Amino acid sequence: MGYLSLTKINLHMANNPIHMSKLRQVIKLHCQGQSKLQISATTSLSRNTVKKYIRVFSGLKTTWEQINQLPDKELDELFCKEPEAIVDDRLVPLHEFLKQQEKRLRQRGVTLLRLWDEYHGQYPEGFSRTSFYHHYNLWKKRVHPSMHMAHKPGDKMFVDYTGEKLQVVDPDSGEVKTMEVFVSILGASQLTYVEAVESQRVEDFISCCENALHYFGGAPNAIVPDNLKSAVIKSNRYEPKLNENFEAFAEYYGMAVLPARAYKPKDKALVEGAVKITYIRIFASLPDKLATSLEELNTRISALLAVHNRTAFKGRNYSRQEQFDEMERAALQPLPEKRFELRSSSVATVMKNGHVCLSVDKHYYSVPYGYISKKVRMLYSKSKVEIFYKYERIAVHERVRSAHNYTTDPTHMATQHQVLAEWNPDYFLSQARSIGNDVEYYIAQVLNKKPHPEQAYKSCQGILSFGKRVGHQRLIKACQRAHAYGLYGFRAIDDILTRGLDLVDLEEDRQLPMPKHENIRGKNYYQ
């Protein structure tokens, strides 16, 4: 008799798997004259399923006895035969159209709807929009199962290191050194950059990322690193903590940092694939003889990399380089004129004079006076010093390496201190010169009478202030009379003006000629 196998066969006419024994039971009950409703209740199958099986049985023109003698495999072939595929003449031109237009979907602003409009314009008798979408999805899965339509030109750059290392040998000592291998790939065009480097330290990692940007000739909108310490200090699902220097590097080039999630390989699937291809097309193609320097090794890698980027994709008639030139090069951001400078960090306390010391140079830089006595963080590169307080940048200066000197931004000082900072002998002499030569000579004598010029600054300020209060002519005459008396200072001028002696033309107080001014020492004397 027939087989009573309990093997489950997934019948294509039913939504759920069914025992072959249950199928035999449906046919047997039908041949015994039971209704479809009764059969459905007995077998726990839906009436529609029962009707489908009975319809197939009726079309076979056979008997229950003959069906029952068939093994399960033949029974499955009779009742579960897949319908023959319908060949549609419209599929061939559709597939040709999709093959030609595949790259356009990665361009900004090009949608599947726009592609269907063009298809419909070329083939008005072709598929409707719904059928077009359906056949497009089938074609994409069958022909290009690895195609990623989500990557837009200029959007992301993925970076990682290979697991395997490369080696170089010292020609003198014979010592063999192991080198890391950095891999970077652009999301849309899949243009790849590979470089050997001594380590995964932050300075080497940033240098490789920067070299990749210059290889591509532009910067994408975002960079996607793995969770290595040179990029991510502490991973977090929502807000990972980034390395300060790497974050500054990305900001300098206008890129957002989007670290791949831990234990989520799909986030970096593209660069993982690039690493595998690197093993095949670069690692395996390097000469057996080891390079004698890192520069020589990278020269070899560069030559193989150029071949890789110009090799056509499998199943396509264009390469990574061609795809990059056509659709992604123009979408990248332009690079700054200068390269990024790696920064070092130092912590210091702002002194009472409003300056903070960069200990490595023993040079002092000003900060706004409101931060006196505060602890600040100094980030410095070869050319710049940035000062931060609680993550906010409060000052930036050009780096100066002269020890025990000050770099001061006048806007950082309090109002009264800003004026004091401008005081020097030349400042007062120039102010006096604008009033008159006699006043300039008198101010020079006031400065000269003090052991140190700074001791006379207040007196000079007071004397010159009379020019606004009583007028320039009275001040000039007061300076002449004070010189005639041999008196040099604020009190002498104040007394003359208060008593009005500058206005009295007495015989004994006749104006005496001022001496020639060759003995005025000038600004250079006081510097």
Could you characterize what this model shows?
- By secondary structure, the protein is α+β, with helices and mostly antiparallel strands.
- It has five domains: 20-80, no CATH class; 90-143, no CATH class; 156-331, Nucleotidyltransferase, domain 5 (2-Layer Sandwich), CATH 3.30.420; 344-413, no CATH class; 423-510, no CATH class.
- It is 41% helix and 14% strand.
- The chain has helices at residues 20-31, 36-43, 47-60, 64-68, 72-79, 91-101, 112-122, 129-143, 202-216, 244-252, 269-283, 294-310, 320-328, 415-422, 425-433, 437-449, 457-470, 472-485, 490-499; strands at 8-9, 18-19, 156-161, 166-169, 176-186, 192-197, 222-224, 232-234, 241-242, 256-257, 344-349, 355-358, 363-366, 375-380, 384-389, 392-398, 406-407.
- Strands 3, 4, 5, 6, 7 and 10 form a six-stranded mixed beta sheet that branches. It has a four-stranded antiparallel beta sheet with strand order 11-14-15-16, with no helix packed on it. A three-stranded mixed beta sheet has the order 12-13-17, with no helix packed on it.
- Strand 1 (8-9) and strand 2 form a beta hairpin.
- The model is unreliable at 1-15, 145-149 and 415-420 (pLDDT under 50).
